[in-house]
Specification:
The chain is mainly α and about 425 residues long. Helix content is about 75%, strand content about 0%. The protein has one domain. It is built from 22 helices and no strands.
């Protein structure tokens, strides 16, 4: 019955059009009434405690770094470097989009920001070259969702705080799965585009590639600096976020000189607005998370799926299927914040490594960004590329399937996550 109260209150509030953060608070109030321990101070105290977390400081700084990169010319130079290397082959702009998405993912950790930047730069070029634009838009959307998986990832930060799991280990564990997602897109694009007639750019000379590399050197250095600093223990993820924001600001203003002082207000305002949304969601979710624990909802769900607890692989398939279903209806952050306190006790009870589960959980939620009807990244690319949503959904299908295949492989072969993680830990 407690599970029913939880679901009816949460889904009912959402059905009335209430913002997710307020729906989570309503859900918490409903659980308190059901448990007979209603106290308004619980809501206030848990919201303050939920937001008062040093690790969450990484969120605004990584968001700010992403905004500064786009405005300061770092994103553009990354795309230009990839174009110089790959633009001459058949479907080259598609491969450029994938490589650029991988590099941008290692800079900002924001799927929406990376997708908007790539679509704004590449879609006009693809349109002029005769590409199938809905399919191209789908590819860019599928590339954009690698951002929450390859570190630095805002998704890993939010999950790590909610689940009390090491964010540094989540970052290191996300490297190989993120690269696998990129490789899956390369294979899918090679298959679907092989018969298309499209223009290719002239082959760049070694001198031109060298110039593109030198021009984009400072942008390309950023992921090496961030990941290297975290790997070798020089900086924590929070300190890396500050470093990324300061670096992007300095490079954009004083090296590339595309970031003008007059632009700073708009950049900081955009980052602040996005941060406010994320932080309020986290604060509200941790209220409901506390009530979920008090109501023993994870224990009730464990009883329902007890027959699966003896087989980790089947249990992971069941949990990931649940996340896929929820991800089609909810955005990334709400899904992470709602399901983490429900699923983590089950994961620990079954003996599944929390870091491994966290990686697959975030991949699954990232895939939810390109699944209708919500599909925030689909909306972003549809708006930027000026392509109807229905066409983008059709175009993204081959790449959605490719990403789901990666998820299935990671469930069947957990060593694909754990072995590279052990190596990156230096063990």
């Amino acid at each position: 019955m407690t599970i029913l109260v939880f679901l009816v209150s949460l889904l009912g509030a959402m059905a009335l059009g209430m913002p997710i953060a307020f729906a989570l608070i309503v859900c918490a109030l409903a659980l308190m009434l059901w448990l007979g321990n209603f106290d308004s101070q619980i809501v206030a105290q848990n919201m303050i405690i939920g937001a008062d977390n040093f690790q969450l400081l990484a969120v605004p700084f990584f968001l700010l770094a992403g905004e500064l990169m786009n405005v300061g010319g770092l994103s553009k130079r990354i795309v230009n470097f990839a174009l110089a290397c790959l633009g001459h082959i058949h479907g080259g702009l598609g491969y450029v989009a994938i490589v650029a998405a991988l590099i941008l993912a290692a800079l900002s950790g924001s799927a929406a920001a990376d997708t908007a930047a790539l679509a704004a730069i590449l879609i006009p070029m693809m349109r002029n070259a005769g590409y199938d634009i809905p399919r191209a838009a789908g590819l860019i959307a599928a590339g954009g969702i690698i951002a929450p998986v390859i570190p630095p990832s805002i998704g890993f930060i939010v999950f790590g705080v909610a689940a009390n799991v090491s964010i540094s280990q989540l970052f290191l564990a996300g490297v190989v799965p993120g690269l696998m997602m990129g490789l899956a897109l390369v294979v899918a694009w090679a298959i679907v585009s092989r018969r298309d007639k499209m223009k290719t750019a002239p082959r760049a000379t070694m001198r031109e590639r060298g110039r593109a590399f030198i021009d984009g050197f400072y942008a390309l250095l950023m992921p090496v600096m961030i990941l290297g600093g975290i790997k070798w223990g020089i900086v924590t993820p929070t300190e890396a976020a500050v470093l990324a924001a300061v670096y992007a600001l300095v490079i954009g203003m004083f090296v590339y000189r595309e970031l003008k002082p007059s632009m700073l207000y708009g950049v900081f305002l955009t980052a602040a607005k996005t941060t406010a949304v994320v932080m309020f969601l986290v604060a509200a979710a941790l209220v409901s998370a506390w009530l979920i624990t008090q109501a023993n909802i994870p224990g009730e769900i464990s009883g329902l799926i007890e027959p699966l607890m003896g087989n980790k692989t089947i249990l992971m398939f069941a949990l990931m299927f649940l996340v896929v279903i929820v991800g089609t209806a909810l955005d990334f952050s709400p899904t992470v914040l709602i399901l983490t306190p429900v699923l983590m006790p089950i994961v620990k009870q079954a003996g599944i490594d929390p870091v491994y589960f966290g990686v697959l959980f975030i991949i699954n939620n990232a895939i939810g960004l390109i699944t209708p009807p919500v599909g925030i990244v689909l909306n972003v690319v549809s708006g930027v590329a000026r392509v109807p949503m229905g066409a983008v959904i059709r175009g993204v299908n081959p790449f959605l399937i490719a990403q789901l295949i990666v998820l299935v492989l990671l469930i069947i072969f957990p060593d694909l996550v754990m072995v590279p993680l052990a190596w990156l830990r230096g063990r």
